[in-house]
Amino acid sequence: MAEKIMIRGVRFDSVNMDEAVEIAAGFINFDENQPRMASPQDAAQQHQPRMASPQDAAQQHQPRKASPLDVAQQHQPRKASPLDVAQQHQPRKASPFVVHTPNSEIVQLCVEQPEYYPLINSADLIIPDGIGVVLASKILRTPLVKGKVAGCDLGLRVAEYCAETDVSVYFLGGKPGVAELAGQKLAERFPGFRLAGYRDGYFNKSAGEENDAVIEAINASGAKVLYVCLGVPAQEKWIYENKARLTNVKLCLALGGSLDVYAGTVKRAPKVFIKLGLEWFWRLLLQPTRIGRMMKLPKFLIGVIVNGNKSGEA
């Protein structure tokens, strides 16, 4: 079960990349119509059947027929997400699981505009996609010890998993032509990758005919995984407002400008910049006009130092 770390009102899951991929795979494979015979953590890790409680298995390796949670709940069929069961044991609606990837800019947005907290925190998995968030966790003495998990890289790993398991994907976002090109590039990189459909991000995202048509196209494609790359906070808002209408999608990933990277229209920072936590500086070098957005990072860290872990205080 992932440890929860609260950073200025945003709840982060302390996971590494491999764990995030395993949880995403569990979301994709989750079947809410079947009785649960596995522990929540196993469900998030490929839904392998469990035959013993964790303690018994560790001590005696004896076969078992139910998880401790199933026993405690009298073997009743469950309709909860793997991560929700592990965290809160709350029942879940028949809508996709959601992964958000906030960085310090997004957390600062929530601090300054608290109405965005419910959108961000509504996700089933929230990973720290930014060195600023990791640094803030250390300042607050609640460190995200497993470090940054880049949303762009997670998207690649999920695409690889989908290619290996014949799961179709839909891309939503980017400029015209970018999503299609990204699909072509990923198909070359991961044999078996199937792009069931795509749509650029230039449409009216408010309730209405145009937005309805986008949702209908996603549903008609049969895709089980949806990459929503509309930028912050438009993508989180769109997922929050429309996820209940996505009839076939099992997993929504909010991944910002990742499609541009996959398509090759935007260059990713060199590995040395990524390793040193300076990917933001690389982006600034390529796009000096981002300076206004980049100022959110020092403002965020100053807010952490001055206000601690209080939410809603810039």
Number of helices: 17
Strand tally: 8
Spatial ordering of strands, largest sheet: 4-3-8-7-5-6
C-alpha end-to-end distance: 31 Å
* CATH fold-level label of the largest domain: Rossmann fold
Secondary structure class reads alpha/beta
Please, how many domains?
Answer: 2
Helicity range of the residues?
40-55%
Q: Which CATH architecture of the largest domain is right?
A: 3-Layer(aba) Sandwich
In CATH's first tier, which class of the largest domain applies?
Alpha Beta
Measured on Cα atoms, how large is the radius of gyration? 20 Å
- What's the multimeric state? single chain
Beta-strand residue percentage: 5-15%
Which term fits the overall shape? globular
Whole-number mean pLDDT: 82
Largest sheet: 6 strands, parallel
Q: Short description, anyone?
A:
The chain has 314 residues and is an alpha/beta fold.
